[in-house]
Design brief:
Layout (H helix, E strand, L loop, with lengths): L1 E10 L2 E7 L4 E5 L6 H13 L8 H4 L6 E10 L2 E10 L5 E4 L2 E3 L2 H7 L2 E4 L11 H15 L1 H25 L8 H42 L5 E6 L7 H7 L1 H7 L10 E6 L2 E2 H4 L2 H23 L4 E5 L7 H11 L4 E5 L3 H5 L6 E6 L2 E5 L4
Parallel strand pairs: 3-13, 3-14, 8-12, 12-13
Antiparallel strand pairs: 1-2, 1-4, 4-5, 5-6, 6-7, 9-10, 10-11, 14-15
The structure holds adenosine-5'-triphosphate (ATP) and magnesium ion.
Magnesium ion binds next to helix 1.
């Protein structure tokens, strides 16, 4: 797929913006705080309904105003999709695709495939498990409707179960048999949770088929990188572990076991990179993970995703920059950066260069 055009109205520091994007590499450069990330965020939001920064709608609307619009045209398999997103400060956002209102985020996720890459992604191994789960969730939600469904229902069950535990403890629950009420939630939790676990197992397996070669092409040391899924419970012991943790759960009104506590380990030559990896090893493995993600999306959806690279090139040394840029291939990429040195150094083929200055974007001639 490719994004053909982007239009913003009262979006963060943009009063109005109209852009025609190139099919290959599009560079947005400018000083700090000019609006580069805002452009990438708006593209991500229009295609996924969520901000990559987890910003709330009311934070996105231009200061002092009540509503924003994003209008984006993307082309996929020769068909144009016109996405019209209306963001309001105090109401739910609405999304219209080709004139038809859509009700669920999954309808949008089914159309567009994006990969967002920011400097924080290079810390995914160093950071806590929730970041690693978030990576898997974001990816799988784009790739699998059933995963998205299971995850939404799983999270709802967790909320309901935790609320019930609290209600029981405070005497608010007036059902005759509190334990059988928890049983009902446990059963549903285990059903959705099992679905989440099995798709995570498959996803990690797919990543493992490619990540090692990619990691070796970057580090050139012949080390073996492997991802290891560390589930909080297995499909086999799920029900039992849930039961065993019940008395503790009733005390803290939380659910102590289940896929919302999973982790993924990165093993390099048998060593746990989370604990013992050097910063360089961790960053190389993180970059490999991101590049594997591109390959997996390409393979599964049989189409190229659009890449959004927010200021990552300046975070990488020139060897790693080169590895990333070679992997981009013909994929449409939107890159934000403060300078153009990296591209000149790496002799990149660039489609369009935009200068971003105080919420205004101008197209530069490539030869400038
Ligand atoms: N809701 C909003 N309304 C108006 N302006 C906003 C809003 N939210 C953020 N901004 C402004 O947008 C600007 C930041 O834009 P952005 O994060 O895109 O900058 P950037 O060009 O990516 O900078 P950097 O190079 O530092 O990453 C800031 O000046 C900020 O005040
Ligand atoms: Mg930025």
């Amino acid at each position: 797929m490719i994004i053909k055009s982007l239009e913003l109205e009262n979006y963060r520091n943009y009063e109005s913006l109209n852009l025609e994007l190139g099919k290959g590499t599009n560079i947005f450069y400018g000083d700090n705080a000019q609006g580069k990330t805002n452009i990438l965020e708006s593209v991500y939001l229009a295609c996924t309904t969520k901000s990559h920064k987890r910003s709330k709608d009311k934070e996105i609307v231009r200061f002092g105003l009540d509503e924003s619009h994003i209008r984006l045209i993307l082309e996929k398999n020769g068909i144009d999709y016109k996405i019209d997103m209306h963001i309001r400060k105090n109401k739910r956002k609405s999304v219209i695709v080709n004139g038809m209102p859509i009700k669920k985020a999954s309808e949008l996720l089914g159309i567009a495939k994006l990969i967002f890459f920011s400097p924080e992604d290079l810390n995914i191994i160093k950071n806590g498990p929730s970041e690693r789960r978030r990576f898997v969730d974001i990816e799988l939600c784009q790739l699998s409707k059933s995963y998205l469904n299971s995850l939404i229902n799983y999270n709802k069950c967790i909320d309901q179960r935790n609320k019930l535990l609290k209600d029981i403890s405070f005497g608010v629950y007036i059902g005759s048999d509190a334990f059988s009420a928890i049983d009902v939630w446990d059963e549903q939790l285990a059903a959705y949770g099992t679905a989440v676990i099995s798709e995570r197992i498959e996803f990690i397996k797919k990543l493992n088929e490619i990540i090692n070669d990619i990691n070796n092409s970057i580090s050139e040391r012949g080390e073996k990188l492997e991802l290891k899924y560390e589930p909080s419970v297995t499909i086999e012991n799920y029900a039992e572990k849930l039961k065993n943790s019940r008395s503790q759960d009733m005390k803290y009104f939380t659910t102590a076991v289940g896929p919302h506590h999973d982790d993924i380990n990165f093993i390099l030559n048998g060593i746990d990179l989370r604990k013992f990896g050097s910063q360089g090893q961790q960053r190389t493995a993180s970059l490999s993970l991101k590049l594997s993600e591109i390959e997996i999306v390409k393979k599964i959806v049989n189409d190229d995703p659009v890449l959004l690279l927010d200021d990552v090139l300046s975070e990488l040394d020139s060897h790693r920059q080169n590895c990333l840029l070679t992997h981009l291939g013909k994929v449409q990429t939107l890159i934000s950066c403060t300078g153009l040195d990296e591209f000149i150094k790496n002799r990149m083929t660039i489609d369009k260069v935009f200068n971003v200055d105080h919420g205004k974007v101008s197209l530069n001639s490539i030869n400038d």
